[in-house]
Amino acid sequence: MWFFRSPEIVFGEDSLSFISSLDMKKAVIVTDRHLLRTDLPGQVRRALPQGTESVVLGDVSEEPPLSEMTSHLEQIREFSPDWFIAVGGGSAMDTTKILFALYERPDLSVYDITPLVKLGLRKKSRLLAVPTTSGTGAECTWAAVLSVEGEGRKHELASPEILPDYAILDPALVMSLPPEQTRNTASDALAHAVEAYGSAWRNPFSDAFAEKAMELVSGSIIGVISEPGNVDLRNRVHIGASMAGLAFSNSQIGLVHALGHALGARFHTPHGKAVALFLPHVVEFNYASCPERYDRLNRIVPAEYRGARLSTSLENILAAMGQARCGREAGISENEFLPNLDDLVSKASESTGMVTNPKDASSADLRSLLIKAYAEGGL
Amino acid sequence: MVKFPSEEWVKEYMAKLNSNASYEDAAKGWEGAMTFVVQKDAAFDRDAYIYLDLYHGKCRDAKFSLAESDLPVPEYKYSGPYSNWRKLINKEIDPIQGLLTGKFKLQGSMMKVMRFTKAAKEMVNTTTIVQTEF
Questions:
Q1: Are strands A143-148 and B58-65 parallel, antiparallel or unpaired?
Q2: CA-CA to A293 of 20 to 30 Å: which in A54, A184, A313, B73?
Q3: A8-173 has which CATH code?
């Protein structure tokens, strides 16, 4: 027995206007600091049904800690919304999921947000996600990542009850995504598709979404980077990223994310950049555990980037995207990296990705992968 | 072959767990006891309890009882009907998916255990290498 879970997805040009058809009285719009300087939250606000009262909480930082995530809870409770609307990338969406859960259940600890606890949400409100990046897939997943203050740790929360009710995939909202975020979030999407496809919990549903996500993202991302104003290419990557989110949310992540979360929490490396460092190395490490699957995924990669093995193809795509090839290139100094190596191994080993990766990894394996991703030529 | 659940099975399980290098590696930061609760069902007519004192990747003590009150209070309980335990030991159920689909229940602090999912999986995987009869 297993499940396939998904929000209702509205996609394509003008899909933002769908919001006006919802029964909505009071909406909390949660967005991040960078977006507050753009018109995107305003576009969402203007799409609300007539007469809807709204409050915009616009100070979500990149990968915020819990205290920051929950600083507006009292204000939200006084406002008493019937909808939460996440507008932004992974941080804004994860923050919104956590605020939604804690608003619905003030008695909960954030650490109760696990699949093992029945939360009983949706007594007061519902959840809608409007991604403005193409990669995290958070609009389609049951996961939320929480940075733990003072511990250099990312805690992976998950519950089917924090899966959004609706995900709106409007390409107009990603047209002005800067090149660096386009590259990083697309790297994350590729990692989601690959990890879902190799996961120990893979299933026919997650396989289908992972394969199509790989086709859409790998087939269009280089075009997006060279031609960022191309709506059709943006739309393909945007939809592909959500499909990759559905794939991993229904099968789970693996070592790429275990290692990426550990590195990102310690050095504040953007999540997509961090997972990109590990992706080819983990695929090579896993290869003997699922060669047919990786070979099948490799055949989906466009011919101009395809190598003999999936790991090479991914290296080719990431290089063509202009992604950093190793931790050194990503700006992490050896003086910072080496003293933290034991802690990185320890933090990565705590990830749920350790149990669903296709190949078991020991602490020694994690250490070896961290070193390879940091400095391909060796330390 | 040792019968599940029984005192003999628990001793064999403890020995296998203490020789499982993957468990030792994954659980080196773990401190806390766990009780496996085997709940009665159509195939097994009484509840049974397996208490495991776990510390830094080793099992320091293991006890079997048919009365929960005979055993120390654990930090965690992993519970399921006898027939699901049989499927688990026969590798017909993934231990974590078993939790997510309601075939098993876990009681205790989620905050701590979610950082030791690999150790939890290795603990349950170790049940599959005990030569078990039912």
A1: unpaired
A2: A184
A3: 3.40.50.1970
